[in-house]
From TrEMBL:
Cellular compartments per GO CC: enterobactin synthetase complex; plasma membrane
Family: Belongs to the P-Pant transferase superfamily. EntD family.
Pfam family, one: ACPS
Domain of life from the UniProt record: Bacteria
Protein name: Enterobactin synthase component D
Organism, as annotated: Granulicella mallensis (strain ATCC BAA-1857 / DSM 23137 / MP5ACTX8)
């Protein structure tokens, strides 16, 4: 599969007003000098390639929003620090990378995630799933989606929505997910009091065959932050 930048996949599940850039296939990219300094001299090639691809996608998404190219720095948990007036999210895994951005007048926060459509490592599911989620996954008959991996991806997207608002960790068991397979959407109940993040979150997912993509967003009008 050749590498390309497009909005075909993640762009099909993000709401209007969110701009996406992505790479499918072999990842590649470049870094601005200030971004290079974020990587230490011992950074392995895989990490460097993924980091550069993510920053390249981020610059592509920002261009779609009409914003100039600028270094994208990172916070204490290695989260991207977006330019003033912008919210966004970056994700990467084997053969896929994407960035999504929007203006803060429209959105308070965005979370995207991509995962290989493969089962989670043994023992992982019980660490991330609540009892009702475990029962739901056990009941699924469809074989084309690794439902445990989808649950993981959804919770990763939710964390990316949560952290910019609350600036603290959200445990996997502090969120309960309900998936609507017919519409490829989901809702999440956050089981932790928070001053800024809504307790009910909604999102969408896509099964590309090789990958599972998820997106969650919160509009500025429904967020007190």
């Amino acid at each position: 599969m050749t590498s390309k930048i497009s909005s075909t996949l993640m762009g099909t599940i993000v709401p209007a007003g969110i701009y996406c850039s992505e790479q499918v296939g072999r990842l590649s990219g470049s870094l601005l000098p200030a971004e290079e300094e974020l990587l230490g001299p011992r950074t392995v090639d895989k990490r460097r390639i993924e980091f550069a691809a993510g920053r390249t996608c981020a610059r592509g998404a920002l261009r779609l929003l009409g914003r100039p190219s600028a270094p994208l720095m990172q916070g204490k948990r290695h989260e991207p620090l977006w330019p003033e007036g912008i919210v966004g999210s970056i994700t990467h895994c084997k053969n896929y990378c994407a960035a999504a951005v929007a203006g803060t007048k429209a959105y308070a926060t965005i979370g995207i995630d991509a995962e290989p459509n493969e089962p989670l490592p043994a023992g992982t599911l019980k660490l991330i799933a609540r009892p009702r989620e475990l029962a739901w996954i056990a009941s699924r008959k469809e074989q084309d989606v690794c439902w445990d991996r989808l649950l993981f991806s959804i919770k990763e997207s939710i964390y990316k929505v949560w952290y910019p608002l609350e600036k603290c960790w959200l445990e996997f068991d502090q969120v309960e997910i309900q998936v609507h397979t017919g519409t490829q959407t989901f809702q999440a109940i956050v089981l932790r009091n928070a001053p800024s993040c809504p307790s009910l979150l909604r999102g969408a997912f896509l099964n590309t065959g090789s990958h599972l993509l998820t997106c969650v967003s919160v509009r500025a009008t429904v967020c007190s932050h």
